[in-house]
What we know:
Blueprint: H1 3-6, H2 15-33, H3 39-53, E1 57-61, H4 64-74, E2 78-82, H5 97-104, E3 108-111, H6 120-127, E4 132-135, E5 144-146, E6 163-165, H7 173-190, H8 195-220, E7 229-232, H9 238-244, E8 247-250, H10 262-275, E9 279-283, H11 289-298, E10 301-306, H12 319-334
Parallel strand pairs: 1-2, 1-3, 3-4, 7-8, 7-9, 9-10
Antiparallel strand pairs: 5-6
Amino acid sequence: MPDALVGHSPCPAGDRQCKCIATVNQAFNVVVAMKSLPLFVIAFAASALSLEAAEKLRISSFSTILTEIATEVGGDRVVVTAHVKPGVDPHEFQPTPTDLKIVGNADVILLSAKHMESYVGKLKEATGTKGRLIEVGAGFPSLKLKGGHDHDHDKPGKHNDEEIEDPHWWHSVANMQRATKIVRDAFIKAAAADKDAFTANAAKYLARLDALQKWTKAKVAELPRDKRKLVTSHDAFQYFAKENGFTIYAIEGISSSDQPSSKKVAEMIATIKAQGVKAVFSESIENPKVLKEITRETGAKVGGELYADGLGEGAVATYEGMYKHNVTAIVEALK
Protein backbone atom coordinates (compact mmCIF):
# COMPACT_ATOMS: atom_id res chain seq x y z
CA MET A 1 0.00 0.00 0.00
CA PRO A 2 1.49 3.41 -0.96
CA ASP A 3 2.55 5.59 1.94
CA ALA A 4 0.28 8.39 0.67
CA LEU A 5 -2.72 6.27 1.58
CA VAL A 6 -1.44 5.13 4.95
CA GLY A 7 -0.32 8.37 6.53
CA HIS A 8 -2.13 11.71 6.41
CA SER A 9 -0.12 14.48 4.79
CA PRO A 10 -0.98 18.00 3.62
CA CYS A 11 -3.09 17.94 0.46
CA PRO A 12 -2.24 20.56 -2.14
CA ALA A 13 -5.09 19.41 -4.38
CA GLY A 14 -7.82 21.00 -2.28
CA ASP A 15 -10.24 20.32 0.55
CA ARG A 16 -12.61 18.00 -1.38
CA GLN A 17 -9.72 15.84 -2.61
CA CYS A 18 -8.26 15.67 0.90
CA LYS A 19 -11.52 14.32 2.23
CA CYS A 20 -11.56 11.67 -0.48
CA ILE A 21 -7.99 10.59 0.40
CA ALA A 22 -8.99 10.42 4.07
CA THR A 23 -11.92 8.20 3.14
CA VAL A 24 -9.65 5.90 1.11
CA ASN A 25 -7.38 5.63 4.17
CA GLN A 26 -10.39 4.55 6.22
CA ALA A 27 -11.35 2.03 3.53
CA PHE A 28 -7.85 0.49 3.53
CA ASN A 29 -7.83 0.18 7.31
CA VAL A 30 -11.24 -1.49 7.30
CA VAL A 31 -10.22 -3.95 4.59
CA VAL A 32 -7.06 -4.87 6.53
CA ALA A 33 -9.20 -5.49 9.61
CA MET A 34 -11.55 -7.73 7.61
CA LYS A 35 -8.93 -10.00 6.04
CA SER A 36 -10.50 -13.05 7.63
CA LEU A 37 -14.00 -12.30 6.28
CA PRO A 38 -15.43 -13.78 3.05
CA LEU A 39 -14.50 -11.95 -0.15
CA PHE A 40 -18.08 -10.91 -0.96
CA VAL A 41 -18.34 -9.14 2.41
CA ILE A 42 -15.09 -7.29 1.77
CA ALA A 43 -16.28 -6.32 -1.74
CA PHE A 44 -19.55 -4.99 -0.33
CA ALA A 45 -17.75 -2.89 2.29
CA ALA A 46 -15.29 -1.54 -0.28
CA SER A 47 -18.18 -0.58 -2.57
CA ALA A 48 -19.95 1.30 0.22
CA LEU A 49 -16.80 3.17 1.15
CA SER A 50 -16.22 4.02 -2.51
CA LEU A 51 -19.66 5.64 -2.66
CA GLU A 52 -18.86 7.62 0.47
CA ALA A 53 -15.66 8.85 -1.17
CA ALA A 54 -17.63 10.39 -4.03
CA GLU A 55 -18.51 13.51 -2.07
CA LYS A 56 -21.44 15.57 -3.30
CA LEU A 57 -21.12 19.21 -4.34
CA ARG A 58 -22.49 21.63 -1.76
CA ILE A 59 -24.64 24.32 -3.41
CA SER A 60 -25.99 27.49 -1.81
CA SER A 61 -28.87 29.08 -3.73
CA PHE A 62 -30.33 32.54 -3.12
CA SER A 63 -33.25 32.21 -5.53
CA THR A 64 -36.13 29.76 -5.65
CA ILE A 65 -35.67 29.67 -9.42
CA LEU A 66 -31.97 28.80 -9.15
CA THR A 67 -32.72 26.21 -6.47
CA GLU A 68 -34.84 24.33 -9.00
CA ILE A 69 -32.19 24.61 -11.73
CA ALA A 70 -29.46 23.42 -9.34
CA THR A 71 -31.57 20.47 -8.19
CA GLU A 72 -32.49 19.44 -11.73
CA VAL A 73 -28.98 19.78 -13.15
CA GLY A 74 -27.17 18.40 -10.10
CA GLY A 75 -29.46 15.46 -9.40
CA ASP A 76 -28.01 13.07 -6.83
CA ARG A 77 -24.51 14.55 -7.23
CA VAL A 78 -25.32 17.73 -5.27
CA VAL A 79 -26.78 18.91 -1.98
CA VAL A 80 -28.66 22.18 -2.45
CA THR A 81 -29.37 24.62 0.38
CA ALA A 82 -32.26 26.95 -0.48
CA HIS A 83 -31.59 30.12 1.49
CA VAL A 84 -34.53 32.03 -0.03
CA LYS A 85 -37.74 30.07 0.52
CA PRO A 86 -40.95 30.14 -1.56
CA GLY A 87 -43.12 33.14 -0.67
CA VAL A 88 -40.17 35.22 0.60
CA ASP A 89 -39.62 38.56 -1.16
CA PRO A 90 -36.10 38.27 -2.61
CA HIS A 91 -35.85 42.08 -2.80
CA GLU A 92 -36.06 42.29 0.98
CA PHE A 93 -34.19 39.12 1.98
CA GLN A 94 -31.01 39.42 4.04
CA PRO A 95 -28.81 36.41 4.94
CA THR A 96 -28.59 35.37 8.60
CA PRO A 97 -25.36 34.31 10.36
CA THR A 98 -26.48 30.71 9.80
CA ASP A 99 -26.82 31.37 6.06
CA LEU A 100 -23.33 32.87 5.95
CA LYS A 101 -21.88 29.88 7.80
CA ILE A 102 -23.39 27.50 5.23
CA VAL A 103 -22.09 29.67 2.40
CA GLY A 104 -18.63 29.45 3.93
CA ASN A 105 -18.65 25.68 3.35
CA ALA A 106 -20.33 25.73 -0.08
CA ASP A 107 -18.60 24.71 -3.30
CA VAL A 108 -20.87 26.84 -5.52
CA ILE A 109 -23.03 29.86 -4.57
CA LEU A 110 -25.81 30.84 -6.99
CA LEU A 111 -27.20 34.39 -7.23
CA SER A 112 -29.75 35.97 -9.59
CA ALA A 113 -27.64 39.14 -10.09
CA LYS A 114 -28.81 42.36 -11.79
CA HIS A 115 -28.82 44.02 -8.34
CA MET A 116 -31.43 41.63 -6.91
CA GLU A 117 -29.13 40.75 -4.00
CA SER A 118 -27.84 43.68 -1.96
CA TYR A 119 -25.64 41.39 0.15
CA VAL A 120 -23.13 40.09 -2.40
CA GLY A 121 -20.27 41.59 -0.40
CA LYS A 122 -21.27 39.61 2.69
CA LEU A 123 -21.34 36.38 0.72
CA LYS A 124 -17.93 37.00 -0.83
CA GLU A 125 -16.53 37.67 2.62
CA ALA A 126 -18.15 34.51 4.00
CA THR A 127 -16.85 32.20 1.30
CA GLY A 128 -13.38 33.71 0.94
CA THR A 129 -11.66 31.85 -1.88
CA LYS A 130 -13.30 28.46 -1.24
CA GLY A 131 -16.62 28.55 -3.06
CA ARG A 132 -17.31 29.80 -6.58
CA LEU A 133 -19.86 32.61 -6.53
CA ILE A 134 -21.91 32.59 -9.75
CA GLU A 135 -24.05 35.64 -10.58
CA VAL A 136 -26.17 33.77 -13.09
CA GLY A 137 -28.08 36.63 -14.69
CA ALA A 138 -25.19 39.08 -14.87
CA GLY A 139 -24.41 38.42 -18.53
CA PHE A 140 -27.98 38.33 -19.83
CA PRO A 141 -29.22 41.24 -21.99
CA SER A 142 -30.89 43.71 -19.61
CA LEU A 143 -34.23 45.41 -19.99
CA LYS A 144 -34.41 48.88 -18.47
CA LEU A 145 -37.33 50.47 -16.68
CA LYS A 146 -38.04 53.76 -14.97
CA GLY A 147 -39.19 54.46 -11.45
CA GLY A 148 -39.24 52.30 -8.38
CA HIS A 149 -36.26 51.55 -6.22
CA ASP A 150 -33.07 49.69 -7.03
CA HIS A 151 -32.33 47.34 -4.12
CA ASP A 152 -28.58 47.41 -4.60
CA HIS A 153 -27.78 49.14 -1.32
CA ASP A 154 -24.23 49.76 -2.49
CA LYS A 155 -25.61 52.16 -5.11
CA PRO A 156 -28.10 54.36 -3.28
CA GLY A 157 -30.14 57.14 -4.80
CA LYS A 158 -31.66 55.34 -7.80
CA HIS A 159 -35.31 56.33 -7.55
CA ASN A 160 -38.23 57.65 -9.54
CA ASP A 161 -37.32 58.50 -13.16
CA GLU A 162 -33.86 56.98 -13.32
CA GLU A 163 -33.46 53.92 -15.50
CA ILE A 164 -32.63 50.69 -13.69
CA GLU A 165 -32.28 47.05 -14.67
CA ASP A 166 -35.25 44.75 -14.33
CA PRO A 167 -33.78 41.84 -12.32
CA HIS A 168 -36.67 39.42 -13.00
CA TRP A 169 -34.93 37.72 -15.94
CA TRP A 170 -36.53 34.30 -15.32
CA HIS A 171 -39.85 35.45 -16.82
CA SER A 172 -38.16 34.75 -20.16
CA VAL A 173 -37.97 31.03 -20.88
CA ALA A 174 -34.99 31.73 -23.15
CA ASN A 175 -33.17 33.23 -20.16
CA MET A 176 -34.00 30.12 -18.13
CA GLN A 177 -32.32 28.05 -20.80
CA ARG A 178 -29.24 30.28 -20.62
CA ALA A 179 -29.24 29.99 -16.82
CA THR A 180 -29.42 26.19 -16.99
CA LYS A 181 -26.31 26.07 -19.18
CA ILE A 182 -24.44 28.44 -16.85
CA VAL A 183 -25.26 26.28 -13.81
CA ARG A 184 -24.33 23.11 -15.72
CA ASP A 185 -20.94 24.53 -16.67
CA ALA A 186 -20.29 25.77 -13.13
CA PHE A 187 -21.02 22.31 -11.71
CA ILE A 188 -18.77 20.64 -14.28
CA LYS A 189 -15.95 23.02 -13.38
CA ALA A 190 -16.39 22.23 -9.68
CA ALA A 191 -16.70 18.44 -10.16
CA ALA A 192 -15.35 17.37 -13.54
CA ALA A 193 -15.80 13.66 -12.73
CA ASP A 194 -19.58 14.19 -12.81
CA LYS A 195 -19.60 15.96 -16.19
CA ASP A 196 -21.66 13.28 -17.94
CA ALA A 197 -24.34 13.30 -15.23
CA PHE A 198 -24.61 17.10 -15.19
CA THR A 199 -24.74 17.24 -18.99
CA ALA A 200 -27.46 14.59 -19.23
CA ASN A 201 -29.55 16.16 -16.45
CA ALA A 202 -29.28 19.62 -18.03
CA ALA A 203 -30.33 18.24 -21.43
CA LYS A 204 -33.51 16.77 -19.92
CA TYR A 205 -34.37 20.04 -18.17
CA LEU A 206 -33.66 22.06 -21.33
CA ALA A 207 -36.03 19.79 -23.25
CA ARG A 208 -38.77 20.52 -20.71
CA LEU A 209 -38.13 24.25 -21.08
CA ASP A 210 -38.42 23.87 -24.87
CA ALA A 211 -41.81 22.22 -24.38
CA LEU A 212 -42.88 25.02 -22.01
CA GLN A 213 -41.87 27.65 -24.56
CA LYS A 214 -43.99 25.96 -27.26
CA TRP A 215 -46.97 25.69 -24.90
CA THR A 216 -46.62 29.38 -23.97
CA LYS A 217 -46.56 30.54 -27.59
CA ALA A 218 -49.71 28.53 -28.34
CA LYS A 219 -51.53 29.82 -25.25
CA VAL A 220 -50.59 33.48 -25.82
CA ALA A 221 -51.71 33.15 -29.45
CA GLU A 222 -55.28 32.79 -28.12
CA LEU A 223 -55.11 36.47 -27.13
CA PRO A 224 -55.29 39.10 -29.92
CA ARG A 225 -52.25 41.40 -30.00
CA ASP A 226 -54.33 44.51 -29.28
CA LYS A 227 -55.44 42.92 -25.99
CA ARG A 228 -51.92 42.10 -24.75
CA LYS A 229 -51.86 44.91 -22.20
CA LEU A 230 -50.71 43.80 -18.78
CA VAL A 231 -51.40 45.91 -15.68
CA THR A 232 -49.49 44.55 -12.67
CA SER A 233 -48.91 45.60 -9.09
CA HIS A 234 -45.17 46.06 -9.56
CA ASP A 235 -42.88 46.16 -12.54
CA ALA A 236 -41.59 42.60 -12.78
CA PHE A 237 -42.70 41.30 -16.16
CA GLN A 238 -40.59 43.19 -18.69
CA TYR A 239 -38.86 40.01 -19.91
CA PHE A 240 -42.18 38.19 -20.20
CA ALA A 241 -43.66 41.12 -22.10
CA LYS A 242 -40.82 41.33 -24.61
CA GLU A 243 -40.80 37.58 -25.26
CA ASN A 244 -44.58 37.36 -25.70
CA GLY A 245 -45.58 40.70 -27.24
CA PHE A 246 -47.21 42.42 -24.25
CA THR A 247 -47.19 46.05 -23.14
CA ILE A 248 -46.67 46.52 -19.39
CA TYR A 249 -48.39 49.12 -17.22
CA ALA A 250 -47.03 48.80 -13.68
CA ILE A 251 -48.80 50.44 -10.76
CA GLU A 252 -45.76 50.31 -8.50
CA GLY A 253 -42.00 50.17 -8.97
CA ILE A 254 -39.58 47.29 -9.32
CA SER A 255 -40.14 45.97 -5.77
CA SER A 256 -43.41 44.94 -4.17
CA SER A 257 -42.54 47.25 -1.25
CA ASP A 258 -42.62 50.38 -3.43
CA GLN A 259 -45.79 52.41 -3.04
CA PRO A 260 -47.29 54.53 -5.86
CA SER A 261 -48.11 58.20 -5.38
CA SER A 262 -51.66 59.52 -5.74
CA LYS A 263 -50.57 61.09 -9.04
CA LYS A 264 -49.31 57.72 -10.33
CA VAL A 265 -52.58 56.01 -9.36
CA ALA A 266 -54.60 58.70 -11.13
CA GLU A 267 -52.44 58.34 -14.25
CA MET A 268 -52.86 54.57 -14.17
CA ILE A 269 -56.65 54.87 -13.89
CA ALA A 270 -56.67 57.16 -16.94
CA THR A 271 -54.43 54.77 -18.90
CA ILE A 272 -56.57 51.72 -18.12
CA LYS A 273 -59.69 53.55 -19.27
CA ALA A 274 -58.02 54.82 -22.44
CA GLN A 275 -56.53 51.43 -23.35
CA GLY A 276 -59.68 49.48 -22.50
CA VAL A 277 -57.80 47.07 -20.24
CA LYS A 278 -60.15 44.39 -18.91
CA ALA A 279 -58.14 43.14 -15.93
CA VAL A 280 -55.39 44.08 -13.50
CA PHE A 281 -53.23 41.63 -11.59
CA SER A 282 -52.03 41.35 -8.02
CA GLU A 283 -49.00 39.38 -6.90
CA SER A 284 -48.41 36.56 -4.49
CA ILE A 285 -46.21 38.22 -1.87
CA GLU A 286 -47.79 41.59 -1.31
CA ASN A 287 -51.07 43.15 -0.28
CA PRO A 288 -52.78 44.61 -3.38
CA LYS A 289 -53.84 47.83 -1.65
CA VAL A 290 -54.38 50.24 -4.54
CA LEU A 291 -55.98 47.65 -6.80
CA LYS A 292 -59.34 48.12 -5.10
CA GLU A 293 -59.34 51.82 -5.92
CA ILE A 294 -58.25 51.20 -9.51
CA THR A 295 -60.84 48.50 -10.18
CA ARG A 296 -63.55 50.64 -8.61
CA GLU A 297 -62.68 53.64 -10.77
CA THR A 298 -62.10 51.78 -14.06
CA GLY A 299 -64.47 48.84 -13.97
CA ALA A 300 -61.58 46.48 -14.68
CA LYS A 301 -61.60 43.23 -12.74
CA VAL A 302 -58.81 41.69 -10.69
CA GLY A 303 -57.50 39.10 -13.11
CA GLY A 304 -55.87 36.93 -10.50
CA GLU A 305 -52.66 36.50 -8.59
CA LEU A 306 -49.33 36.32 -10.42
CA TYR A 307 -46.02 34.97 -9.14
CA ALA A 308 -43.50 37.69 -9.91
CA ASP A 309 -40.53 37.15 -7.60
CA GLY A 310 -40.09 33.39 -7.61
CA LEU A 311 -41.79 30.07 -6.95
CA GLY A 312 -44.63 29.38 -4.57
CA GLU A 313 -46.00 26.21 -3.04
CA GLY A 314 -48.22 23.41 -4.29
CA ALA A 315 -49.06 23.72 -7.99
CA VAL A 316 -46.66 26.67 -8.40
CA ALA A 317 -43.73 25.06 -6.59
CA THR A 318 -41.99 24.35 -9.91
CA TYR A 319 -40.94 26.75 -12.65
CA GLU A 320 -43.23 25.07 -15.15
CA GLY A 321 -46.15 25.22 -12.73
CA MET A 322 -45.52 28.88 -11.86
CA TYR A 323 -45.09 29.95 -15.48
CA LYS A 324 -48.17 28.12 -16.72
CA HIS A 325 -50.19 29.58 -13.85
CA ASN A 326 -49.14 33.12 -14.78
CA VAL A 327 -49.71 32.68 -18.53
CA THR A 328 -53.11 31.06 -18.06
CA ALA A 329 -54.27 33.73 -15.61
CA ILE A 330 -53.17 36.54 -17.93
CA VAL A 331 -54.63 35.12 -21.13
CA GLU A 332 -57.95 34.04 -19.66
CA ALA A 333 -58.53 37.35 -17.85
CA LEU A 334 -57.71 39.53 -20.86
CA LYS A 335 -59.68 37.60 -23.49
